[in-house]
Amino acid sequence: MGFPPWPSSASTNSLASRAQVTQASVDSDAPAVTANGFRVLAENSSIEVEEQNVAPFSVPQEVLSFQPDDQAVFARFMNGDCERKLHCNIELTADELEALRLLQEEARVQRVALPVSISASATRYLSHSHGDPKKALKMMEATTEWRSSYFTRPLSDVNMAEDLKLGLVYFAGRDKALRPVLVFRASRIPAAWHRERRYDLVIRVLVFSMEYFMRYMAVPGKIESINVVIDLKDLTISQIPIGVLREVHRSMGMYYVGRIFRFYICNMPRILGTLVPLAKKVLTERQRQKLVFVCKPEDITRDIASGQLEEDLGGERQQIKEFFPYPLLPGPFEPSEPPVRSRKDPVPGVHKLLTPDGFTGRLWNRRAKPEENRRLNYSECAADIFRKCGLPVPAEVLARTRPPEPESQTGSNEKANEPDSNVDEDPQPEAIVSDESTKDSLSNADLEALELPNTHHRSKLEEVEAVHRRRCCFFSGCGGS
Fold it and tell me: Which of 142, 170, 203 is nearest to 13 (CA)?
């Protein structure tokens, strides 16, 4: 059985498969829903995880005070090109905002609607398509179709319990920028899966892990991608599952655009190791940054603290024997000599800091204030989490948890029912806004997403050529995963 195929161009152009906004929906009285400048669709739930199976350190407490530096935001190359790594709740360049506007307009002209999660990834698709809005939109539609067909029901940790226990794919550790480390042990693929060519089961475990990352581990503007460590231990060259690895690489690149920061190849067969110098000569600088052949421990521990890595992967952590809930450790995460032991009293459960939709994030809105663009969707228990971590509680969190003012006993009923003018009714700009009555608060992109397309808008796409000539992290040959 094969893995569900990536939708073809023909399928994404068919009326049956495209996520289109129909004339009936436009003419109806139902509120129009937009996010990130796109009309949005309802989205199927992708995973179900029982509360006791959510790893205590899915989000480390260090994220509360973490401020990404330039190296965490961009990958920069010697030829002057760069590639953005953080996309949500973070300021975009003028060129990026212009490219995003053209993509939003193309979606409006083609009457396309997308799930919120894909609308928030719009700049990732632009990066992958080198700034081409038509190509980016086609990829976004294809991802929408794949997610709709693949997640007809959520992937459940209960139903997948036996597969998750194999230790084939699991999160264990973080790099110095708090990006999680996903370990893939090729030798642990069951023999029966090889015989029956059930590589779709391998991909299913991988997809579950990626969906777990996006639901419980990603923090917009801070942690948006992962590292993948591929272990080839105990495999000869003939035993290396090339087909599986190719499918893993293809799936990660197509279904999770821009979510992989780096691949590390560990424990290569000796004869394969001798070919590494030759391979490095033919790889581009961009490929060398994304693909690391681990020939000595320093090749990986310069980025990932040895205490976060198992011994056979170049670290000092004992071999992991239980793989789910994911065996994530608390910090520190910065590589050091000698290695620093884990915190004595780490704070678990920091993933409860955000609401479920808060892990998705939002794209920069040029009409909103910077602090509103950067603001995270905090949950009701966020204040307690900040206090447990010994950090001051942000003002926007206090605003959500401040108790209401006592009502005056002599006030009229009408006055008692009036909203408190000192409390912001919506302290956080939500990712979704709807209906005509809220137009004054919408961005230009959201306003345009609510309108019917006109023929003159297509001519604006000619501006893409002008944008292509600019040097930014979408263009000049950079971008992609």
Answer: 142
Q: By CB neighbour count within 10 A (0-12 exposed, 13-18 middle, 19+ buried), where does 424 fall?
A: exposed
Cα 312 from chain centroid (whole Å): 28
Which distant-in-sequence residues (6+ apart) come within 8 Å of 324 by Cβ? 53, 157, 161, 164, 165, 170
Percent of the residues in the chain that have a pLDDT greater than 90, as a whole number: 61
By CB atoms closer than 10 A (0-12, 13-18, 19+), residue 200 is middle
In this structure, how many other beta carbons lie within 10 angstroms of the beta carbon of residue 371? 9
CB 411 within 8 A of CB 427: no
* DSSP classification of residue 105: H
Residue 433: band (very low, low, confident or very high) from pLDDT cuts 50, 70, 90: very low
SS3 291: strand
> Distance between CA 353 and CA 237 in Å, rounded?
45
3-state class (DSSP) for residue 455: helix
Are residues 19 and 145 in contact, defined by beta-carbon separation less than 8 angstroms?
yes
Q: Confirm if 266 and 314 have CB atoms less than 8 A apart.
A: yes
pLDDT digits (tens, 9 = 90+) for 75-90: 888 777 888 999 999 9
Calpha distance 249→243 (Å, rounded)? 10
DSSP state of 67: -
Beta carbons within 10 angstroms of residue 380's beta carbon: 11
pTM of the model: 0.81
Q: Taking the CA atoms of 266, 269, 272 and 274 in sequence, report the sign of the dihedral they define.
A: positive
Q: Catalogue the E-assigned strands of 31-112.
A: 33-35, 38-41, 47-48, 74-76, 82-84
Cα→Cα distances 468→37, 465, 473, Å:
21, 5, 11
Question: Which phi and psi angles does 85 have, rounded to 5°?
Answer: -115, -25
Please enumerate in sequence order all residues whose Cβ is within 8 A of that of 447, keeping only pairs 6 or more positions apart, or say none: 439
Residue 257 burial by Cβ neighbours in a 10 Å radius (0-12, 13-18, 19+) = buried
CA angle, 161 as apex, 151 and 263 as ends, to 5°?
70
CB 361 within 8 A of CB 325: no
Helix axis angle, 199-212 relative to 242-255, nearest 10°? 40
User: Do the Cβ atoms of 189 and 235 come closer than 8 Å?
Assistant: no
Q: Helix, strand, coil proportions of the chain in percent (round to 5)?
A: 40, 10, 45
Most confidently predicted of 13-27, 74-88, 460-474: 74-88
- DSSP assignment letter at 405: P
Angle, in degrees to the nearest 10, between helices 242-255 and 133-150: 110
Q: For the CA atoms of the chain, what is the radius of gyration?
A: 24
